[in-house]
């Protein structure tokens, strides 16, 4: 699957995009975020506050319990505000 990172998540990860094949035990968005946080120092920094991370799976906003079955792309980003 392709993961795209935006805003300060991108800055902390040091990349805007990567292709990954998460381990079999990673079945939800929340588990993916936890796995990314545990994977290396950049992930630990980017996902230190997982409740602040928003996700879109194949273009649709989802919560942390969303399944990763047959996912092509996931976008991870901080909350967005506007004015």
Q: What's this model, at a glance?
A:
The chain is built from three helices and five strands. With 83 residues, the protein is α+β, with helices and mostly antiparallel strands. The protein has a five-stranded mixed β-sheet with strand order 2-1-5-3-4.
Strand order within the widest beta sheet = 2-1-5-3-4
Q: Tell me, what is the CATH class?
A: Alpha Beta
SSE ordering: EHEHHEEE
CATH architecture title = Roll
Flag low-confidence runs: none
Beta strand %? 15-25%
CATH superfamily caption? Beta-grasp domain
Biggest sheet features: 5 strands, mixed
Helical amount: 25-40%
Cα-atom Rg, whole angstroms? 12 Å
- Structural class by sheet pairing and helices: alpha+beta
- What is the overall shape? globular
Description:
By secondary structure, the chain is of the alpha+beta class. It has a single domain, classed as Ubiquitin-like (UB roll), CATH 3.10.20. It is 29% helix and 23% strand. The protein is built from 3 helices and 5 strands. Strands 2-1-5-3-4 form a 5-stranded mixed β-sheet. It is globular. The mean pLDDT is 94.
């Amino acid at each position: 699957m392709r993961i795209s990172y935006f805003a300060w998540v991108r800055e902390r990860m040091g990349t805007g995009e990567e292709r990954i094949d998460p381990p079999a035990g990673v079945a939800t968005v929340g588990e993916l975020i936890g796995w990314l946080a545990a994977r290396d120092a950049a992930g630990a920094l980017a996902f230190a506050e997982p409740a602040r991370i928003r996700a879109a799976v194949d273009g649709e906003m989802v919560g942390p319990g969303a399944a990763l079955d047959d996912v092509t792309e996931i976008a991870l980003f901080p909350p967005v505000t506007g004015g």
